[in-house]
Amino acid sequence: QVRLVESGGGLVQPGGSLRPPCAVPGFTFSSYAMTWYRQPPGKQRESVASISSTGDTTDYADSVKGRFTISRDNAKNTVYLQMNSLEPTDTAVYYCNAKFDMMDSNVLFETRWGQGTQVTVSS
Description:
By secondary structure, the chain is mainly beta. 0% of the residues lie in helices and 40% in strands. The strands form two sheets. The chain has a six-stranded mixed sheet with strand order 2-10-9-4-5-6, with no helix packed on it. A four-stranded antiparallel sheet has the order 1-3-8-7, with no helix packed on it. A hairpin with a 6-residue loop joins strand 4 (33-39) and strand 5. It is globular, with a radius of gyration of 13 Å. The N and C termini lie far apart (40 Å).
């Protein structure tokens, strides 16, 4: 059964960086777009960054443009989110999911989200 496995979060000071990976073993990873989401405390989950199946095209929420970079390694079935210049408002649980196309609103694994990885930005 396909699993979404996020890791690499943690506590970081404002201005710091993190690069959490999301691994999706046992999946035809290279055939699908991938998206990183986040859910801040007390708020709804929101899309942060998306990448096409080949990695040629990316898209970002306005709030992270210029600070976050999404990338993927299809040989490792893994998508990454390089987060620089982190701000307290970036504090959230971060998740990944797959899509047929990066601009789709629906995710492939609607009922099988991973556990997420907690990112806390605080001094």
